[in-house]
Amino acid sequence: MSKRNWHRWWKWGTIATATVLLVALAAGWLMFQHIPAWYHPLEIPPEQVQSVRDDFVGTFDRLSELLNTSPGPFEFRLRQDQVNAWLVSREQMWPESRRWLSPQLSDPQVIVDRSGVRLGATFRHGGVRSVLSAQFEVHADQGGVAVKLAGVSAGSLPMPRSKVRELLATIDARHWPAGRRGHGQVDDRPLPALAGLYEGIILPNGWIWQNGRRPFRITRLTCEPGEIVAIFEPLPRQVSRPSRRSEPADSSSDVIWNISPGSRPAGSR
């Protein structure tokens, strides 16, 4: 190849490479700023905040009553629209909750479906705006609550796992008590490091409900379209650590009350 032809090919190759890079950067920027179709954060008018507060207090009062008085395991359902209303109204109900999220994050939303739980929020920094989201696979059984991070995205652009792991490791070091026993935990298993979320972690399922000091454990947790369904098992107050084996069955342990927020025990199943 002559020197002249080599320069020509070099010129057109450089132009083609630059064009591809510009197209890739433009596509990445559009993906970063893309608003996912599922993201529609609630807007709660000021006159409805009190009803949202009443729903929050009533829901946890019912759960507290059931944990302290139920003769056996019971089912409890939590709807995503309830959780989203609480999140949107959090600052009016608890002003200190402004510290829950970074000032760069706003408009949180939770989506629950059979694949798990998706968390989303709007990220703003200067003139940059995007929707950050994380998808979790969640379930529970007698062994604990299993949580696995399926992915993190900015808009529709997946974030590198290495960067997410670095962020989770920082949270472990500064905020999360990784390797230590959690406050109110029933057994002595140390809490796992959040940096292992991509591989999956097992959280303890036995805790003490502070209102009444009632030990309990979550023996099942599943995600259904629009709601989280959990089976709570109240434990005897004199028992501080649940056995790793199943408790002996009796006439009361076979009764599972079907409870959803806003309802009362409807009878045995």
Give a description of the structure:
With 269 residues, this protein is of the alpha+beta class. It has one domain. The protein has five helices and eleven strands, in the order H-H-E-H-H-E-E-E-E-E-H-E-E-E-E-E. It has helices at residues 3-33, 49-69, 80-88, 90-93, 161-174; strands at 74-79, 105-113, 116-125, 128-141, 144-154, 157-158, 201-203, 206-209, 214-224, 227-234, 257-259. Strands 2, 3, 4, 5, 6 and 7 form a six-stranded antiparallel beta sheet that branches. The longest helix has 31 residues, at 3-33. It is globular, with a radius of gyration of 24 Å.
Any descriptors?
six-stranded antiparallel beta sheet, 5 helices, 269 residues, globular, alpha+beta, single chain, five-stranded mixed beta sheet
Shape label: globular
The radius of gyration over CA amounts to 24 Å
| Proportion of strand residues | 25-35%
The termini sit apart by: 84 Å
Structural class: alpha+beta
Characterize the main sheet. Answer: 6 strands, antiparallel
Low-pLDDT stretches: 20-30, 239-269
Oligomer: single chain
SSE string, helices as H and strands as E: HHEHHEEEEEHEEEEE
Number of helical regions: 5
What is the total domain count?
1
What value does the average pLDDT take?
80
Q: Helix share of residues?
A: 25-40%
Number of strands: 11
